[in-house]
Amino acid sequence: KVVLCWFRRDLRLHDHAALYHALRSGLPVVPVFVFDTHILRDLEDKADRRLQFIHDALIRMQQELQAAGSTLHVFHGTPEEAFQAWVSHYDIAAVYTNHDYEPYARQRDTAVAKQLGEQNIAFHTYKDQVIFDKGEVVKDNGEPYTVFTPYSRKWKSRLDGFQLKSYLVEKYKQHFHRQPPIPIPTLREIGFEPTERNFPPDDPEDALIRHYDQTRDFPAQQGTSRLSVHLRFGTVSIRQLAAKARQLNETFLNELIWREFYQMILWHFPHVVGESFKKEYDRIQWRNHEKEFERWCAGNTGYPIVDAGMRELKATGFMHNRVRMIAASFLTKHLLIDWRWGEAYFAKKLLDYDLASNNGGWQWAAGSGCDAAPYFRVFNPTLQTQRFDKDMAYIRKWVPEVDELTYPAPMVVHEVARKRALEVYGKALKK
Ligand code: FAD
């Protein structure tokens, strides 16, 4: 008999809740992963860098497991097919995995638990990718928070050493199931192309975190951690990172709490996928002008800070947070294009794409989200540039022709667009 440890968005072999519990179960552990065709079929870009990132992480895990005489078992297909195959291949007592809070994941896990249950195989799940989940940080009356500041206050008041303790997986490495290596399918075998690799490192310097509050708003600087892709795929541990944040910088810790806030919102209010958190915002008469949307995507709006961000995103899969806010505000307020269009475009392009944070960020910018910017606050891209990129170093990097005649004039005049946004929003919200 063996147990399986099913990896999903937790692609590491250290400080891992499900793996720890599996290794302590007393039965040999087979680590498994599914290249889930339900997810892969929605990815349009066959050279999607996220697949390369995942593949690299699996290869690293495979090397570590081989050193322990074991192997990762990777399946390409649906989770249902994967478990059918594994059930006929191994004598399985239980499957261990970590919680996943997205609607698709919840439905997938319910189906897998049922499929396994029919064969008397237990399905154990654990909290791993956040410090607090589900109903752990709620108001005194048990309701979920919808405003960040009181949520973060409660979050911090509940934090003690216990939640930050690492799961010492290393101690139990001899409990992996011993078997010869099973090759991981190549990217081509699962229908994708290899891509370039310049992914950010997973261990930013302490000095960067220590000064984070002073540097984080300036896109020309390397002033943020670039850990988002690692947090997304679990190649770093949130416990180790939060412990570091608590020591080094309160503002940085707050950003990690924003991440949990949006995950918690998605858990309690799954309607935010596809609908405004505040329902009345779905009455807004978006203009949804397709040509204007294309100019925004391509980074040709004539607003250099917006264009720099959109070009950075297209070229690298990353955009600085300050610029994400400006670009999202520009799309929803200046162009009056439905936040869902912007959300979907970011979802395709962002290396760190995460349903909860992306949806939260977009609804924040559009004003439709919980604890969002008030709708009448319309970012002025020119003033934002003066504050956060005053030497235009970031802009010049991505829009080198900014001072030349070939660079387009602003596609809308800020004041005109601002008035129009206030009218259209005002009309929808007054009803
Ligand atoms: P740092 O500034 O170093 O922050 C550290 C970590 O804290 C980040 O890696 C991230 O996990 C978390 N974090 C920071 N800011 C936020 C925030 N506002 N909301 C939630 N978590 C945060 N973040 C994603 O991880 N995936 C997304 O798909 C995503 N989409 C966004 C869309 C919009 C419109 C906006 C305004 C923000 C979005 N963010 C998203 C949040 C934020 O922009 C990124 O997390 C951040 O830019 C990543 O860079 P970093 O790792 O250097 O962050």
Automatic annotation (TrEMBL):
Domain of life: Bacteria
A GO molecular-function annotation: FAD binding
UniProt cofactor(s): (6R)-5,10-methylene-5,6,7,8-tetrahydrofolate; FAD
Record-linked InterPro entries: Crypto/Photolyase_FAD-like_sf, Crypto/Photolyase_N_sf, Cryptochr/Photolyase_FAD-bd, Cryptochrome/DNA_photolyase_1, DNA_photolyase_1_CS_C, DNA_photolyase_N, Rossmann-like_a/b/a_fold
Name this polypeptide is given: Deoxyribodipyrimidine photo-lyase
Residue ranges of every copy of the Photolyase/cryptochrome alpha/beta domain listed in the record: 1-131
Cofactor, free-text remark: Binds 1 FAD per subunit.
Keywords carried by this UniProt record: Chromophore, FAD, Flavoprotein, Lyase
Residues under site feature: Electron transfer via tryptophanyl radical: 286, 339, 362
Residue numbers binding FAD: 212, 224-228, 252, 255-262, 352-354
Database matches in PANTHER family: CRYPTOCHROME, CRYPTOCHROME CIRCADIAN CLOCK 5 ISOFORM X1
Similarity comment text for this entry: Belongs to the DNA photolyase family.
Protein's UniProt keywords contain Ion transport: no
Keyword Flavoprotein: yes
